[in-house]
Amino acid sequence: MLTLVVLLSALSAALTVLFIGNLVPGRSAALDQRLAELEDGPGGTPEILRRRRRLARAERLTAAVQTLGERFEARRGDTSAMRLRLIQAGYPNNNAVALYLGGRFLLPIGLFAAVFLLAPPLGFSLTIILIMSAWFAVLGYVTPPVYIGSRVRSRQKQMQKALPDALDMLVVCVEAGYGLNQALVRVSEEIERISVVLSEQIALVNLEIRAGTPRDDALRNLGERTGLDDMKSLVAMLIQTDRFGTSIAQALRVQSDTLRTKRRQRAEEAAAKTTIKLVFPLVIFIFPAMFVVILGPALIQIFETLADFAK
């Protein structure tokens, strides 16, 4: 009996250890691969060595572009507007302006040189090569600001769609007894399912407040980072409400109703513009096909009749 009790106790202990081991999350495959690379030291498989060489080349290229961009940044002087634009596009790093300026200078040169060197083996004349090189150089100079503007508009559109829902959550949190700071923390966690960008921006407000920035300044920074007029009006309302001690929940409810009304009006405006936008595909694609289908047989008969008369 004593032996049976000992065996059962050992088996129970072993099963308990296995159960706890299954509950503990294992290391991910990426982590295991990275640890294997570090254990390999300077050697490793050919794939690891190629990856290391690519990373080293990318780091050297980034460092060169940043060094060149820093010189342009020093000569440019005030780059606050450009930095704000890059922050609105989702590039808040300190070296974003330098990389942007360096890339905008090197990209046209690189495209010009690539076309100028690769086009002659294809049999193009010198004039065509120069025109193509100049065109690609202009394209390389214009592409970075166009890309940044596209990212800014995309992020603003995403935040604008999720802002009324975020305000509703903020109203619920404030009416439930949360302070404004705690309500912002809760909203940043919940709104991530709808808009990751808006969640990040609200979370940055909480981080700034925790770092010692006054709440008014943190809210103003939120309006500047997003660049949305609706967000700036919301920030101004929150600052005014906090300053004069009025009801935050009532002000947020009014603001939420206003934003929903604006969103409905924007949807109606977009629907009204649809008719005008359909004119161009109708004229370019549908009308020519209709003319071919309707007038094609008649034209064929006319040509055949005229050919018979000519005989």
Provide key terms for this protein.
2 domains; mainly alpha; 85% helix; single chain; Receptor-associated Protein
Order of helices and strands: HHHHHHHHHHHH
- Overall 3D geometry? flat
| Residue share in helix | over 70%
Poorly predicted regions: 4-8, 15-27
CATH topology descriptor of the largest domain: Receptor-associated Protein
Domain module tally: 2
The radius of gyration is 32 Å
CATH architecture of the largest domain: Up-down Bundle
**Structural class by SSE content:** mainly alpha
Task: Report the span from N to C terminus.
Answer: 121 Å
Report the mean per-residue pLDDT as an integer: 79
Number of separate helices: 12
The biggest sheet amounts to:
none
Q: CATH class of the largest domain, please?
A: Mainly Alpha
Strand content: under 5%
**Number of E-state strands:** 0
Folded structure, characterized:
The chain has 311 residues and is an all-alpha fold. The protein has two domains: 101 residues; 120 residues, Up-down Bundle (Receptor-associated Protein), CATH 1.20.81. It contains twelve helices and no strands. The radius of gyration is 32 Å and the shape is flat.
Quick summary:
The protein is mostly helical and 311 residues long. It is 85% helix and 0% strand.
Reconstruct the topology from this structure:
Layout: H1 2-23, H2 29-40, H3 46-76, H4 80-88, H5 96-118, H6 126-175, H7 180-190, H8 196-210, H9 215-226, H10 229-244, H11 248-277, H12 279-310
